[in-house]
Amino acid sequence: MKINTKLPAVGTNIFTIMSKLAADHESINLGQGFPDFNPDPTLISLVSKAMNDGYNQYPFMTGVPALRHTIAEKMFKTSGHQYDVDQEVTVTSGATEALMAAVISCAGPGDEVIVLEPCYDSYIPAITLSSATPICVPLTPPTSGSTTFSIDWDRVASSITPATKILILNFPHNPTSSVLTEADLDELERLSNQHDILFISDEVYEHIVFTKEGHKSLATRPALAARTFVISSFGKTTHTTGWKLGYCCAPPALTNELRKVHQFMVFTVPSPFQYAMAQYCKDPNTYLGLAAFYQEKRDHLINGLNQTRFKPLPSDGTFFLLADYSEISDLPEADFSIWLTKHHGVTVIPVSAFYSDPRSSTSNHNIIRFCFAKQPATLNAAIDRLITV
């Protein structure tokens, strides 16, 4: 039977490949981005209570009202922007579904969608499925004058054409751990004034930011909020990545289109998780202490890597840390990551995997990504092995 695949360039992703290698070689997996510890027992109890209270049938397509109220309140407290609970807040099956629905709802044949690479691996498939064209604009990699990846706004501006429909942003950034500054928001406002484009802002690590300035959501600028899908996830905030509970905040016209796709993509999200999260996250303390919690883990891994030949790069946000391995090997990033798993029992993710052409020399900077959302014993065991590399 002949099948005309809609995603001919998509194969087994790097996370699946590296996780299988880790299992095959009994390696410590610091690759895929999920915690190896449980969420707050209080949250788990609230899920059980919701089930026992009878919240086991279809909830509203847009999300249960209590959770949408909690999201709107949180967004107002953290960004200053007041989203309408009924017209501007939608609960989704994780951030990935929200991203897919946002792209498909607004992009189509003849449209171009700009992504900044390295970029999260669901963006380009979403653009392809919408029949639009992805335009990849590389971030400026670390150099002798800079230790972080940064946005070349002149390059972004020069990539905008009359066909440009959307610019997708992801900050705090996976995989580079970079964050937006007020100057970056100024540049975005300048672009929004000059061009009729939309923004999709993937902000799933919004509460894991280590800079003094904190997270700079596009929702903090009214001019940007007026043309942006702001997308986030409870999975990263509450250590529940497997629950796939996310949300999208956007102006009514954008929300209306997103919900049309959402309705027929998943319709809705499991009821007990929604009711539990609505109650749990009403307390700001459930997310306001998250940066300090993860900063301790980040610093622990940095201190460990400082005992090795790896050179840790600054991590301003997310639960990821990049490290330069140029003193150890000149292998391409994917090959080095496989070698590290097989010969030293620590699994990482090559940053090159987040580029449209992972084997290109311009995608390889001798940098790998560690996930530090792990128990201290896991990090210690990995550090002990890395010291021998």
From TrEMBL:
GO molecular function: kynurenine-oxoglutarate transaminase activity; pyridoxal phosphate binding
Keyword Transferase listed: yes
PANTHER family, per the entry: FI04487P
Cofactor annotation: pyridoxal 5'-phosphate
Superkingdom field: Bacteria
Keyword terms of this UniProt record: Aminotransferase, Pyridoxal phosphate, Transferase
Entry-linked InterPro entries: Aminotransferase_I/II_large, Kynurenine-oxoglutarate_AT, PyrdxlP-dep_Trfase, PyrdxlP-dep_Trfase_major, PyrdxlP-dep_Trfase_small
Protein name, UniProt field: Methionine aminotransferase
Domain Aminotransferase class I/classII large: 27-386
Organism: Jezberella montanilacus
Family: Belongs to the class-I pyridoxal-phosphate-dependent aminotransferase family.
Keyword Transferase among record annotations: yes
GO CC, alphabetical: cytoplasm
